[in-house]
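Sample intake sheet
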Amino acid sequence: MEGMDVNLDPELMQKFSCLGTTDKDVLISEFQRLLGFQLNPAVCALFLDMTNWNLQAAIGAYYDFESPNISVPSMSFVEDVTIGEGESIPPDTQFIKTWQIQNSGADAWPPGVCLKYVTGDQFGHVNMVMVRSLEPQEIADVSVQMCSPSRAGM
């Protein structure tokens, strides 16, 4: 999931990188050991088989399967605060664009939520802007420093 930070145990990652066997019994045993022997060999073999016997991918698939449903923060655009629809900016001009947004979901946003540039014309060098945690239905302004294109246009 985009934007999710996961702290991986360096020792665990080192074990993954050192494991270079193709012996299925060894892979099943290692899968069981890494998960604290909470799965029987048949279930381990299922996850390993569906990931082409790649131990690291099998562990990831297991955690993806077993992780609780994660709710993604909900957001709604409320209005343009600065530079609204139809307003113009002279070419090659620095400006600050501000939008009003709302947490339209039922849960508070977790710390670390950000808005990220994905596609379209990018008017500046900002790829991401952090947004403070918002309570359900709370409204906030988000501002980004931008620069208009060097040629006039829409």
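Comment: The longest helix spans residues 55-66. Strands lie at 75-80, 94-103, 114-116, 128-130, 139-147.
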